[in-house]
Specification:
- There is one protein chain.
- The protein is α/β, with parallel strands linked by helices.
- It has three domains: 64 residues, Winged helix-like DNA-binding domain superfamily/Winged helix DNA-binding domain (Arc Repressor Mutant, subunit A, Orthogonal Bundle), CATH 1.10.10.10; 136 residues, Aspartate Aminotransferase, domain 1 (Alpha-Beta Complex); 237 residues, 3-Layer(aba) Sandwich (Aspartate Aminotransferase, domain 2), CATH 3.40.640.
- Helices cover 46% and strands 13% of the residues.
- The chain contains 18 helices and 14 strands.
- The strands form three sheets. Strands 3-10-9-8-7-4-5-6 form an eight-stranded mixed β-sheet, with helices on both faces. Strands 11-12-14-13 form a four-stranded antiparallel β-sheet, with helices on one face. A two-stranded antiparallel sheet has the order 1-2.
- Helix 2 crosses helix 3, helix 6 crosses helix 15 and helix 11 packs parallel to helix 12.
- The longest helix has 26 residues.
- It is globular and about 80 Å long.
- GO terms for molecular function: DNA binding; DNA-binding transcription factor activity; pyridoxal phosphate binding.
- Keywords: DNA-binding, Pyridoxal phosphate, Transcription, Transcription regulation.
- In the C-terminal section; belongs to the class-I pyridoxal-phosphate-dependent aminotransferase family.
- This is GntR family transcriptional regulator.
């Protein structure tokens, strides 16, 4: 008997058996595969098991049923190399596509996340199973406009640890930090409105602002932080609608604002009558006592945005906005009109994770591990002769002067299987830059050493 390979279930075994033969072209495109009963006899499974395997493969587009004639292998066109993508210039679309194409295999100093091995997948799995045991109703229930109320109450208590006074009605849940910022832009920014960002600033926000049609102006960095005199002058001249900023773990520099800078930024926002989006998605990777704009402002002009995909899992996309109660109702209206509600099963899972105490222990261990890794990475960069801007003390980023055009270096890194985030992508001007964002958790392996050698060669050339 032709036996099935090892698999986690009989259905999976049937799928693996047939897929292997399709891949080897035992059953080429257009060929009829064994009937359900024939497959069941061959693999010693029930016809119901074989039928479910065929249904799954049909849903995946691998085979198709023909009425009265059985199942046939779908014809699949040979993939056509995307030469345009391969030769494209290094821009935001290039970086995002490289990240998504690489999937789990992505590696390199340009990544914006912690290694998957650092995250607590066991806790997430146990939590999702616990929700499943509560009955199908929990999985089938729809959400509400502002999101799962018990989670919003927990978030309000957690914000208090940052010195931010908020209650549940001031919080709107979102599907991650990107969705949170997008809601604010959809609500408050019209095409042509001026929005200020730091230069450098997170490329994702720059992309959203471009799609919104905003007039984006960069506020330069001075030694160790944003140039606040320049911010005042630019705000006076342009009368912006918004300022988008990180107060801690600034992306890409990894730096944090001090208390004096926080106070000055809030004062400038009040003087020139604009709102501030405080993107604090990396909050749990640093000291909770670091000064926040929202704490100083009391959520009057500051709209605080947070999330948990960086510390839990990229697929558990739960973020939130904390703001004045009037703005929260407005953002909830925008959320419902543009995307209905957010998935409550994710919100329930996060609520359980935050409530049982395990998450607190998890992020404490992450911070300790990250501090150690950051010190190692900064020493490595120093030994290799690359200057780090501002010596970050928190989070997972450093802003590194590679002494060459990092767009060109990014292309060379890609040839070695490494993803880089060149400095040009973090500026509203998109001008070529010697800097790149460096993830301090990057493994110091042979590929990285080759990259450093390539940077020195480019600098020499």
């Amino acid at each position: 008997m032709d036996t099935a390979p090892h698999a986690s279930s009989r259905v999976d075994a049937c799928i693996e058996w047939l897929r292997a033969r399709i891949d080897r072209r035992v059953f080429p495109g257009g060929a009829r595969v064994p009937s359900i009963r024939a497959l069941a006899r061959t693999l010693a499974v029930s016809p119901f098991t074989a039928a479910e395997a065929y249904e799954r493969m049909a849903a995946a587009g691998l085979i198709a049923a023909r009425r009265g004639a059985g199942y046939y292998v779908c014809e699949v066109a040979a993939p056509v190399p995307n030469l345009a993508r391969a030769s494209a210039q290094v821009d935001l679309k290039w970086l995002m596509q490289q990240m998504l194409d690489s999937g789990r295999a992505a590696s390199g100093p340009g990544l914006g996340v912690l290694p998957a091995a650092w995250l607590d997948g066991d806790a997430l799995g146990a939590t999702l199973r616990a929700i499943g045991r509560e009955g199908p109703g929990r999985l089938l229930e729809g959400g509400t406009a502002q999101g799962y109320a018990p989670l919003r109450e927990v978030l309000a208590r957690r914000l208090a640890a940052f010195g931010i006074a908020a209650h549940a009605e001031q919080i709107v849940l979102t599907t991650g930090i990107t969705h949170a910022i997008h809601l604010v832009l959809q609500t408050l920014v019209m095409p042509g409105d001026t929005v200020l960002v730091l230069d450098p600033s997170w490329f994702g926000a720059l992309g959203m602002l471009a799609l919104r049609g905003a007039r984006v102006i960069g506020v330069p960095y001075a030694a160790g932080g944003p140039d606040l005199a320049a911010l005042d002058a630019i705000a006076r001249e342009t009368r912006p609608r918004l300022l988008l900023i990180n107060s801690v773990v600034q992306n890409p520099t990894g730096l944090a604002l001090d208390a004096a800078a926080v106070a000055r930024i809030v004062q400038i926002a009040a003087r020139y009558d604009f709102h501030v989006i405080e993107d604090d998605v990396y909050a749990d990777l640093c000291d909770p006592l670091l000064p926040r704009l929202a704490a100083y402002d009391g959520l009057q002009r500051v709209i605080y945005a947070g999330g948990y995909s960086k510390t839990l899992a990229a697929n558990l996309r739960v973020g939130y906005l904390a703001c004045s109660e009037n703005l929260a109702r407005t953002f909830a209206d925008t959320k419902v009109l543009t995307g209905y509600t957010t998935p409550e099963v994710n919100e329930r899972a996060l609520h359980k994770l935050l409530a049982n105490g395990r998450y607190g222990r998890h992020v404490a261990a992450l911070r300790e591990r990250l501090d150690l890794q950051r010190r190692k990475a900064l020493r490595l960069l120093e030994r290799e002769g690359f200057a780090v801007y501002g010596r970050p003390a928190h989070g997972l980023f450093a802003w590194v002067d590679m002494a060459c055009d990092t767009n060109e270096l990014a292309l060379r890194g890609r040839e070695r299987g490494l993803l880089l985030a060149p400095g040009s992508l973090f500026s509203p001007t998109q001008r070529a830059s010697r800097f790149m964002r460096y993830n301090v958790t990057t493994a110091a392996d042979a590929a990285l050493r080759e990259l450093f050698a390539a940077a020195r060669q480019l600098a020499h050339d």
